[in-house]
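Q&A log
Question type: sequence-to-structure
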Amino acid sequence: MDSITHAVLGACIGEAVAGKQMGRRAMVWGMAAQSFPDIDVVASFWMDTAGNLLAHRGFTHSILCMILVTPLFALTAARLHRSRGVPLSRWMLLIGLNIFIHLLLDSQNAYGTGLFEPFSHIRVAFNTLFVADPLFTIVAGIATVAMAMPRSKHKTRILWARAGIICSALYLGYCTVNKIIIDREVKHLLQKQHIAYDKKFVTPTPLNSMLWYVVATNDSGSYIGYRSIFDKRDDMPLYFYARNEALLKESEDHESTQKLIRFSQGYYTTEKWGDTLVFNDLRFGQMGGWEYPDGKFVFHYFLHDSADNAMVIQRGRLKWDARSFKGLITRIKGE
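Response status: OK
Response body:
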């Protein structure tokens, strides 16, 4: 999830666990613990882009790291605030719960999380939440602002903290129900439309959990479509993108290419833009694909050393305007 979501939810959990003894300091510790796994972003300073993609949400997002770091964090907090009389067990709860929630939330979106590193490189991705969803974050965000007010008392802060946590949990439940419904519909429609595939996934489109992006892939390529929870039509328009495996032979021995194939978990295509060879990771969707089926994929990586791939994950997220939002809302309403 995005950094703001982790921070505000961490503040709510911190207040709920230790706000009575620690005051607003509990919010700060909650925010720090919830944000800790993302310390892996520092790897970008010395790793190449492809390597950094695999490093992010790797070991620092693993269960093993959580087990190792929690007692260290808790002991540090207990020593710094020994006069507050907060038992070590409560610090363990505050720190451990926040790190666990971070791992749980990051496992909900398409990027995936290395929960079992270093023993397994499998990335866990439930594809239930988009990486930034305002409806998931808004109540916890308002609660954090209210709790930070100078004159707020613990009795008021604890109510806000509970509201932030409960509303986020209920929204995650709502998203999970939507995912189950869409999954069943997509499976039925693919079968009805005689689409042969080896594996598939559905994941939310940007900023919502009502319009879902669908990918069904086989050895030759992938079928891509969109399904809203409000759709009434009994079919799903699909567009086929050839994998173009032969194109990768131009760079198949390149270390970056092998890392990208592993990172994509098999959901990729290759194409040429003029003389430039491009690798597309399909999991992150298209730029306005619900309106433009031939839209470029958000994650496109140029397979030559002189290209700028530093912002590869962010390419599509930086191109939003009022017309784009209007198109998304229109498609969410259903067909």
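Response note: The chain has two domains: 3-174, 193-332.
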